[in-house]
Write a structure and sequence with these properties.
24% strand, globular, 4-stranded mixed sheet, alpha/beta
């Protein structure tokens, strides 16, 4: 079984379904309210674990009742929590998600996720050293991400950097990571004013630009390719990108090619958006195997 270490956010999602999002000063009636487990780091860790990897989480939660539930959920998903710490001076992370016609808008409150420091990264060095792939996102402080990339590069451990939400990272760190997986908005923040085709050519087999219902663009060393998304009717797109990243990480770590891994990630994401919730929609490996597309294309170790 491959080992994937996920460094990132652990949060609670407060989900509101509505037919109309309010304008400034306006009150509208919502259709439904629910809470769910989330945080991009936790979502990607759950995706990788459900798809067959040994997953180790590095992150921070608060000293509140939400923290207890967040840790319990990760344990139930068979995720190792040796390097998940509780901090007393900040609440656990949270996000308010509004869903309209299957599309989401999110306000993210980092809380305890901002307590992930370079020093905490250094303390997890042994788990990082034995990882087949390390996955990180932007819902933790940039200095922790920079230190993570530095440490992993030193130990020759590949890093998948998912720059979500959009934020700049040093050019040096971008050069060192193995994969970068922005969506189109995040791409424009990382590479302002540059044409996608030219940047993809500059980072062949490294830069994967997710384009929602279109699919994923990358350069295979010869030309720019689009790996089409699977066409489904979405119920809730929350967590689709996280599911893709976790699934891609599992597939690539198991020796699949980049294109095969993208197709695997696309399938997992398409299954996830047919259910409500960032984590409740994430498929298991058995659900993936039940898909006709899986039977035709993939056989993981």
């Amino acid at each position: 079984m491959v080992k994937i270490t996920v460094v990132g956010s652990i949060s609670t999602d407060f989900v509101i379904e509505t037919d109309k999002r309010p304008q400034v000063g306006e009150t509208v009636e919502g259709k439904n309210f629910s809470t769910a487990f989330g945080g991009k780091g936790a979502n990607q860790a759950v995706a990788a674990a459900r798809l067959g990897a040994d997953v180790f989480m590095i992150g921070t939660v608060g000293n509140d009742t939400f923290a207890e539930e967040l840790q319990r959920n990760l344990k139930e998903n068979q995720i190792f929590l040796n390097n998940v710490e509780r901090v007393t001076h900040l609440p656990s992370g949270s996000a308010v998600i509004t869903i309209q016609d299957g599309d989401n808008a999110i306000i993210y409150i980092p809380g305890a996720n901002n307590a992930l420091t370079p020093e905490r990264i250094a303390m997890a060095r042994e788990d990082l050293k034995t990882s087949d792939l390390v996955v990180v996102q932007n819902e933790v402080p940039v200095d922790a991400i920079e230190e993570l990339v530095r440490v992993c590069t030193e130990m020759q451990v590949p890093v998948l950097y998912n720059p979500a939400p959009a934020r700049r990272l040093s050019a040096e760190a971008i050069e060192k990571v193995r994969f970068i997986t922005p969506n189109e908005t995040e791409f424009s923040v990382l590479f302002p004013g540059e044409k996608m085709e030219e940047v993809l050519e500059r980072y062949p087999n490294k830069l994967l630009v997710t384009a929602g219902s279109e699919g994923v663009y990358y350069h295979d060393g010869e030309k720019v390719k689009l790996v089409p998304a699977n066409k489904v009717v979405p119920v809730d797109t929350t967590g689709a990108g996280d599911t893709f990243n976790g699934a891609f990480a599992v597939a690539w770590s198991n020796g699949l090619t980049i294109e095969e891994s993208i197709r695997f990630g696309n399938l997992a994401a398409s299954l996830s958006i047919q259910k409500m919730g960032a984590q409740t929609g994430i498929p298991t490996i058995d659900e993936m195997k039940g898909s006709e597309k899986y039977e035709k294309e993939w056989h993981l170790k």
